[in-house]
Design brief:
The protein is α/β, with parallel strands linked by helices and about 325 residues long. The chain has ten helices and twelve strands.
Length: about 325
């Protein structure tokens, strides 16, 4: 691996010592990804300007990832199922009547579910098309804009949700600190991000132009601690493709150890080769699972006229 001095410092250690992991994104376009030597944090360097990043998320991101300006029926059904799975993981931390902020609320599927579960939910979403769709379809409270622009009073929320948002932030530590002001004392952060050491996908598929940071369990925990949050739990649910963490708005009892993390992450990335992947069952099972998912989505949404009908049927079905 090539040693470099990064233009962007590590958000955990504030150091610039890194090695290059990859020079291209998942589509083969130029994108340099590095791993910090002191922390093991993987991130994009160099990166777009602040204005370019904001434009990408407000105008281009949904089109880049979903190929549409507003959710299609399959997207609503899929996101609704994901919201239900996330609810199962976090319901022990939430109670009826709690005020919850969903940052990066997308098409509003989680906000709508939270309302059905008795929470007082609000959202922030930078993409105008998705935010407008959520408001019109589900009548949810959603602001168009970025997290730092959210117009809420301090100490408003009992919980803040960041589902697949942290990896897109320009400085997750600073933005968590900013969001902390909106939490009540003892309030919780619930964070989910992709797991950079996940090995069931194609090796280069994890490098997204929109993912400025790539976490493992240690660096997700260390990022939260650096932002002044106390760790409740960080785990790899399901097949380990994502990390799920719960943190409280209390000062951490002790720093998070980074010892050996660079070596662990480097080893996982280096040994996750194309040949090893092709010799595993994962690339051959994926198209079968995708075909089954496509058929089930079309069947489940065949008679639905809009997003609300899809989510009502999904959320009210026996689990």
């Amino acid at each position: 691996m090539e040693r470099v001095q990064t233009s962007v410092p590590c958000i955990i250690t504030d150091t610039h010592n890194a090695v290059v992991v990859c020079e291209k994104d998942r589509h083969g376009h130029p994108l340099r990804t590095v791993i910090n030597v002191e922390s093991g944090l993987v991130y994009t360097d160099p990166r777009p300007t602040h204005d370019e990043t904001r434009k990408f998320y407000s105008e281009d991101y949904r089109q880049e990832y979903k190929g549409t300006a507003i959710p299609r029926k399959k997207h609503v059904f899929r996101a609704g199922g994901v919201a239900l799975n996330r609810w199962k993981r976090m319901e022990s931390h939430l109670q009826k009547g709690m005020k919850v902020l969903d940052v990066g609320a997308g098409g509003g599927e989680m906000l709508y579910l939270l309302g059905k579960k008795g929470c007082e939910a609000s959202g922030v979403e930078p993409n105008n098309g998705y935010a407008k769709y959520a408001t019109e379809q589900y009548g949810v409270d959603i602001q168009v804009g970025f997290a730092e622009e959210a117009d809420f009073n301090p100490n408003t929320f009992d919980a803040i949700l960041l589902f697949h948002v942290l990896e897109h932030m320009e400085n997750p530590v600073q933005e968590i600190k900013c969001l902390k002001n909106l939490l009540k004392p003892g309030g919780i952060f619930i964070i989910e991000v992709p797991n950079v050491t996940y090995r069931n996908g194609f090796p280069s598929a994890k490098w997204h132009v929109g993912h400025l940071y790539n976490f493992n369990r240690t660096t997700l925990a260390a990022t939260a601690v650096q932002a002044g949050m106390e760790i409740i739990r960080v785990e790899e649910p399901g097949d380990g493709g994502n990390l799920f963490g719960v943190f409280t708005n209390n000062e951490p009892a002790e720093p998070c150890s980074l010892e050996g993390n660079f070596d662990r992450v480097s080893h996982q990335l280096e040994t996750h080769s194309v040949m090893r992947h092709l010799l595993s069952p994962h690339p051959y099972l994926r198209p079968i699972r995708k075909a089954i998912r496509t058929i089930s989505e079309k069947w489940a949404t065949r008679n639905a006229q809009n997003g609300r009908e899809i989510l009502d049927a999904l959320y009210e079905a026996p689990n």
